[in-house]
Structures are given as structure tokens and as C-alpha cells.
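Exam revision sheet. Question 4 asks you to relate a sequence to its structure. Input first:
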Amino acid sequence: MDTNKLRELRVAPGQKQRTSRSIWTIFLVVLAVTGVALFLAWPRASDKVRIFVREGATATNAETRLASAAGNTETRTDVPPRGQEGDAVLTVSGYIINGTRIELSPRFMGVVKWIGVEKGDSVTNGQVLVLLDDTEYRARLQEVQGRLANADAALKQAELSYDRINRLARTDIESEQARDDATLRLESARATLRELQGTRQLAQAYLNWCTIRSPIDGVILEKLVDPDELVTPQSFGGTRGPSTALVALANPQDIQIEIDMNESDLSKVSLNQKCRVSPEAYPDKSYEGYVKEIAPEANRSKGTLQIKVQVNNPDHYLTPELSARVDFLR
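Answer key, C-alpha cells:
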């Protein structure tokens, strides 16, 4: 009986062998997995490209494509590559600024009577921009002119008196004392006339200062006042005090790039060194320039020195306060 049970539990010899189909299936799966692993692990040139993105910024598709095409080049979003530029010893980013920015302020407290420009308007040298209320200064000028007419009449009278007394003194009819008194009255009249002439010039100057003209050919950057607004050359503090400037303007042909240069790169920069400028907003645009100014003092907290690059023949693509790339050439 025990022998029969053992025979029933015994496995048939045919069932102990796996089919050849199962073995080949397992072999093919292992071979496929190995091939995929080798493909992913194989080194490629694009793996050497590193893209650095500043905090809060993302790399654009164009920058990614440039990075892939550059091979071993390190690509930065703040200084994107724009082709092979082996003539550059240093490439940095800076900000486009106006070389000359002028804020026109009044010479005295007054009220704006008229302003004839808006933001973005082009102006010429000598063009009238703002008119201040000149009622008071016209009245002062008229008053001085009246006093000047009286002084002129008094001078003529003193001259006639002196001539008459001088003739009589020669014939001993008048005394020397009378002639001396006449001479003093004549000099006093002349001095009074000169004083009033100066007062008239001052009154005329104040009247002229009521007309604000552009000192340069340029463009209006900001319109800072409106008609009937009080303006003053001095601020009294606070946010609701009188305006201290009327308009701000600049010469669009005087464009510079302001750069905070790291001290480790200063040895590569010199005064009047030629540069190539390209605005970040228009990477296909390129301008010639040169190092115009190197600050005499550094910023200790930043470890930087301010450099200003003058751009030759700028145009409207160089918008102030936007960023630009500067290549310092050999």
C-alpha cells in the first residue's frame, strides 16, 4: 500500500524538462534589457553641455538649442552664446543707460502755466518746453523801468547843473564849494542809474527764467508736472511736497552700457578698449563701442568696479534700462 502511494506522488520524467520555447523567450527578454541599458549608458557630446539658469528663471528653447550645438561650451542664460567669437577676451552683461540724463528744474518757486511736451517727444536745442506764471516778474520789470526813467531824468538834470556851475566857477561867480557839490550830485545820479540798470537786468532774468527751454537735442524721458502745479527748486520733504523737476530728457545718440565688473576680470579691461555690444532683447543686433570710463573706486560690499562702455552710432533697439551683452575685444 505504501508503495502504491509513492508511485502516485512520483513526477513523470517528461514533466521535469522545460520546453525549448520558454528558454528562448527568457533569453530574448534579457538581451533586450541589456541593449536598452547599453544605449542609455553610452556617452554623447550633448551630455557635456551644462545649462545654468538663474534663480526664478527658465531656459528658453532657443538657449537649449544653442547649448546643444555648442558642444563642450558652458551656456548661461544671462550671457547666451552668439557664435564663435574668439576675438573676445571677456564677455559680461550690463545695463543700457543714457550717457546724459538731464532733469530741468525751476530757478525759483512758481506755478506751471503751460507745458508743451509729452513723454517720448523729440525736442531740439532751445525749444520751449514749459512756461511758468510770469505775472509777478512782469510787474517787477515794469516798476524798475519806471524808476530807471526817473533816474535817467535826474542824471540829465545833474549834468546840466554841473555844467552851469562849472562855467560860473571859472569866472569866479560861483565858488569852488558849489562846483564840488554839483560834481557829487552828478556822480550820485550816475551811480543810481547804474544800480537801477542792474535791477532791471535782474528782473529781466527772472522773467526769462519763466520760460524753460531744452538745452540739448533729445527726447523727453519723463513729464514730471502738469499745468497749475506748484514747483520749487528745493524739496520740503514728504511725498506730497512741491515738485522739484519739470521734465527729464536725454540725448538718444549718447548711449552707454553700465557694467559692474568683478575684480577678478579687471586685468582684461583697459580704457578705450574696443568692445562689441549686443542687446539681449535683439541678439541679432551688434554695435561697436569702447571703454569710456573706469570708476576710480570699487564697491567693497560687492567686490565690483563700475565700467561704462560708450556705444558708437546707437539706434532705437538700444532701450535704456534693458540688459545687453558686451564682448571686450583683444
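Marking note for examiners. The two ends are 105 Å apart (CA to CA).
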